[in-house]
Design a protein that fits this description.
By secondary structure, the chain is mostly helical. The chain has 14 helices and four strands. This is FRIGIDA-like protein.
């Protein structure tokens, strides 16, 4: 038989329990609200984390794809260079044989190289110097023909093609003024020959570029390339003697930068120096393309901003057109800003009766009143 329940316990169970107070209800409500808010906050946080991770994952995938594409392109380029090297060398050796044969034939030539009457005569004279590897006479001849600059630009490459060793010939030709001007007092009389150095260096590029794959491989011997690098280092060391980058003449800067591009001796660790030199000589019309050849294409937006900050709006417009950043730096506002600055400068000059020249020099141009 089952046990009989205690009457006292039965009575205790039948006693009514006290109802929860309003304060307890409020506490429970507040706790539920806090839990709900905390849950929402945690849910939003994890959702944000998930979205950020997805974005980073997508960005990483794009970078991997870009790297794969670059790697494939690099491997294809390397393979092409390996495949074409024999053909390029064969062509170069054939040209060398032709040049040697022509040079030997020209030894007995009695032509007066200094007398030139027309374009054909100019080319023949230049070729005669190149065939005989007479670099000093070639240099003296070129610097007397500044009025025929366009003809020189078109004919010097053809003449250099007759040299047995064009890169060495060019280094010897410009050695009188680059990397250090050896003329002494003559160099201080305004007889700047930087233009001749630039023309000769530019003319060498089509001569030394690979006949099969083009500018991506320059046919310059290691010995000459080492000599060109030493010349570049000598020029860089001379900067302190000249008073720093700010005091270097623009033609000298142009020659140095063109020298780097022509001989393929650009150094990534010197990019900061290249940028300062380019910005300091930005008014030179060849500077935008030269900057790209130096590998500064990625820094162009910052360089353009720097030019604008320096009040060189015209140079900035030139750079934007050359490197295709017109949409990012619209030229019209830049030109309007330049005109405002020009009007202010003109007004200040007109208000100054003691101004001797009645002229103001802007960073990249002159306005004469």
């Amino acid at each position: 038989m089952g046990s009989i329940p205690d009457p006292g316990e039965v009575a205790a169970d039948l006693t009514p329990q006290p109802l929860p107070s309003f304060d307890d209800f409020q506490r429970q409500t507040s706790l539920m609200t806090s839990c709900t808010l905390l849950w929402k906050e945690l849910s939003d946080h994890f959702t944000t984390l998930e979205q950020n991770l997805q974005k980073k994952s997508d960005a990483l995938k794009r970078k991997i794809q870009a790297l794969d594409t670059d790697t494939k392109a690099s491997l294809a380029s390397i393979k092409k260079r390996e495949v074409t090297i024999d053909g390029s060398l064969e062509i170069a050796l054939e040209r060398l044989d032709d040049r040697c044969e022509a040079a030997l034939k020209s030894i007995d030539s009695d032509r007066d190289d200094g007398e030139v009457d027309d374009g054909d005569g100019l080319l023949l004279a230049l070729k005669a110097f190149c065939l005989k590897m007479r670099s000093r006479e070639f240099w003296k001849f070129v610097i007397t023909k500044k009025k025929e600059l366009d003809a020189l630009r078109s004919q010097i490459p053809m003449a250099l093609g007759e040299c047995v060793d064009p890169p060495r010939f060019v280094l010897e030709a410009i050695s009188e003024v680059f990397p250090v001007d050896r003329r002494g007092e003559r160099s201080e009389k305004g007889n700047d020959l930087g233009w001749a150095c630039v023309v000769i260096l530019e003319s060498l590029i089509p001569v030394v570029m690979d006949p099969v794959i083009g500018k991506s491989r320059l046919m310059v011997t290691p010995t000459v390339k080492k000599r060109a690098s030493e010349i570049a280092e000598t020029w860089k060391r001379s900067l302190e003697e000249r008073g720093g980058i700010e005091n270097v003449k623009t033609p000298d800067v142009h020659t140095f930068l063109q020298h780097l591009v022509t001989f393929g001796i650009v150094k990534r660790e010197d990019f900061d120096l290249y940028r300062k030199l380019v910005v300091g000589s930005a008014w030179r019309k060849q500077m935008p393309k030269l900057a790209v050849s130096l590998g500064l294409g990625g820094e162009m937006p910052d360089m353009i901003k720097e030019l604008i900050g320096r009040g060189q709006q015209l140079d900035a417009v030139h750079f934007t057109y050359e490197v295709g950043l017109v949409n990012k730096f619209p030229p019209v506002p830049l030109l309007k800003a330049f005109l405002r600055d020009a009007k202010k400068a003109a007004a200040s000059i007109m208000e100054d009766p003691d101004n001797p020249g009645r002229a103001t020099v802007f960073p990249d141009t002159q306005i004469f009143l």
